[in-house]
Specification:
This protein has 336 residues and is of the alpha+beta class. It contains 13 helices and 13 strands. The strands form three sheets. Strands 8, 9, 10, 11, 12 and 13 form a six-stranded antiparallel beta sheet that branches. A four-stranded antiparallel beta sheet has the order 4-7-5-6. The chain has a three-stranded parallel beta sheet with strand order 2-1-3, sandwiched between helices. The termini are far apart.
Length: 336
Amino acid sequence: MSEPRLTERPLLTRARIGVLMGGQSAERDVSLRTGAAVHRSLVRRGYNAVAIDVGATLSQDLYDQKIDLAFLALHGPGGEDGAIQGFLETLGIPYTGSGIQASAIGMHKVTTKTLLASAGIPVPAGTVVKRGKKVSSATLLRAAKLRWPVVVKPASQGSTIGVTIVRKPSQWHDALALAHCYDTDAMVEAYIPGHEVTVSIIGRHEVSPLVLPAVEIVAPGGFYDFAAKYEKGKTQYLCPAPLTAAVTRQIRALALRTYEVLGCEGAARVDFRITPRGRPFVLEINTAPGMTETSLLPMAAMRATIDYDELTERILESALVRVARFGHQEGKGRNP
């Protein structure tokens, strides 16, 4: 028997959907682009959707707009770290994507790595430097058994914000200072030479998660920074990634295992570095992948013959489990 179309699901088609976007993180502009694209898609599909720029008046905005269900298009701290998820749980408003715990773990790279390593999932060697702690590069690399180059990044940021590839001691203090601008924890980890590859997953209500084709990212200069991510034409994307069948199977299995270990729901994206000899390492998971015109999730979905609007609907469907749990009634809104 064929699966019912989302347009036949009254819990979604009758709901007033708020696309939450913007926020105040360093990824605000990217989130606004993601949210605008998602909102246009939902409207094209006939959903009763409204765009909401998240700010201090969010509670009142949700009430005034009579929002029944939230489509989360937020990135960075406050949007994909469990904060907005907890806020919506308190209000009893179902939302898309991962819940509080998976979002909080996935956003904090150190916690993610600790959990994945305990599950036997390969991650780069590394350590953490707290803000205010004075430590020389020689001392830290020796203690952590690292060698140049290393990657220094904030523990809780996305879009490669605050990340530096440190190749020599003279870059060390500036890299730490930059990372500490965004987080009290700076993660220092081994630089893995080779290929940058990402695998996206779409979890669905009462259906096994779908692992999408891998995408290899060939960035200018070998560093997939913010400009390379979001400026058209700067980066080459190969989908499916030109990997051996064995490596492809391995990273697909590792991506799904990462998704399951963290307890993710809805869409997520697992980022890898793969050595020239084909050994993969999980760098991080993104529990709120971008949905802009240059984003990797829609690109991988298209390769799997899932167009943008269908992808948006599949992500929307991830809220159904919370609709049932909250005992939701359409059209009622929520009191502030």
